[in-house]
Amino acid sequence: MNIFVVNSGSSSIKYQLFRWPARQPICSGLVERIGHPNATITHRLFRTEAEQAAPTEQKRTLELLDHEAGLREVVYLLTDPAEGVIQDPAEIDVVGHRVVHGGESFAATTIIDEEVKAEIRRLFALAPLHNPANFVGIEVAERLFPQARQVAVFDTAFHQTLPEYAFRYALPDALYQEQGIRVYGFHGTSHKYVAEQAAAYLGHSDARLITIHLGNGCSMAAVRGGQSLDTSMGFGPLTGLVMGTRSGDLDTSVALHLMGQLGYTVEQLSTLLNKESGMLGLTGLSDMRDITRALEQGDPRAALAYELYAYRIRKYIGAYAAVLNGLDAVVFTAGVGENDALVRRLACQNMEFFGLQLDAAKNQQRVPGLREINEKNSQVKILVIPTNEELEIATQCAELLQVNS
Ligand SMILES: Nc1ncnc2c1ncn2[C@@H]1O[C@H](COP(=O)(O)OP(=O)(O)O)[C@@H](O)[C@H]1O
Ligand SMILES: CC(=O)OP(=O)(O)O
Ligand SMILES: [Mg+2]
């Protein structure tokens, strides 16, 4: 059967098509800058063994007004008579959607019906950058693949195992009981995927792991025995680590000051913290590759931003080693975690106390797949594991629909 995975963001769509149960990706891609006159589609094909080693890549720039136009283009690519991988949209059996916020309603993967959609909609206020885009992706996929079963995989689901003392805020009880104000945590699909890979690599199902997801959004999780015990994002995907454009941890009195004394409205504050802060606020740049370039050109703001970014990670490593009562491995993943050796070096420096010793040469090597970058005698392993949220989403869809055999 064919499982099509959609990760719909505010201005982008990532997708991947899998043949199941072979778990074989057939194609994947990224639609960027939706809503701009020069949107791009990058489409990669993995039809043969040769393409699995070196995929054929098609890239196009075109005008895409909205997500529907973007997904329609993807369907043309999938069904293209010359290069397509299917003949008809009806060959897609399941569409698996990444949905960022599932609140307390969804601790597991769920078949999407009208009630589920209403709940995802109700949660818009809690993840304003993400859930509306995820919802649009669902509605468009329902129109384009009417025969397929639509399934939601929630970023929050993996963190539903947090103990109450970790997920509650010290606020009046009614705000939790009546308004659901608590830690939810995000990037759960990625944390779960890399934690499972790490535990399998270590041959230790009860391993104490700290997983560090560094993409545009960044978060860490303390994982033991495959269960998330704590995580750095909270009620929304805004707290914790420094991110591309999000502030991460911030004393709430700053927000009170901005609103009370400087006249910020709720909307302005939300824009500031979600879209104008983080690395962008510190350096004027949000893409880590651009910040690396600025650093190499001697920009002192880039140097400070790197230090601050890595220092925040180090503080959470310390905290989570305490949560886990020890540590077997630290795992770096996602765009920055997998590629940026300087971030990893700064984040692991002066950590001998915790038994973390990075091997500088191994850290610099660019090797695909899971790799170990600690010194031989390091007590704690330091691993780089490429995340694959799309594969994890497809896996969870297949488990839910019992199509693994
Ligand atoms: N080679 C690289 N070196 C440093 N950073 C990189 C590299 N490749 C990608 N990145 C960074 O990864 C981030 C995007 O990560 P990704 O996991 O794709 O995020 P998201 O899924 O949130 O869009 C960007 O900040 C980008 O600069
Ligand atoms: C939840 C979240 O922050 O997701 P992303 O990193 O894709 O923005
Ligand atoms: Mg991501």
TrEMBL record:
It is found in: Cytoplasm. Mg(2+). Can also accept Mn(2+). One of its GO terms (cellular component) is cytoplasm. ATP binds at residues 14, 213-217, 287-289, 335-339. One of its GO terms (molecular function) is magnesium ion binding. Pathway: Metabolic intermediate biosynthesis; acetyl-CoA biosynthesis; acetyl-CoA from acetate: step 1/2. The keyword Cell division does not apply. InterPro entries: Ac/propionate_kinase, Aliphatic_acid_kin_short-chain, Aliphatic_acid_kinase_CS, ATPase_NBD. GO terms for biological process: acetate metabolic process; acetyl-CoA biosynthetic process. Substrate binds at residue 98. Its cofactor is Mg(2+); Mn(2+). Mg(2+) binds at residues 7, 389. Its EC number is 2.7.2.1. CDD domains: ASKHA_NBD_AcK_PK. It holds the Pfam family Acetate_kinase. The active site is at 155 (proton donor/acceptor). Signal peptide: none annotated. It catalyses: acetate + ATP = acetyl phosphate + ADP. Homodimer. PANTHER family: ACETATE KINASE (PTHR21060), ACETATE KINASE-RELATED (PTHR21060:SF15). Belongs to the acetokinase family. This is Acetate kinase. The gene is ackA.
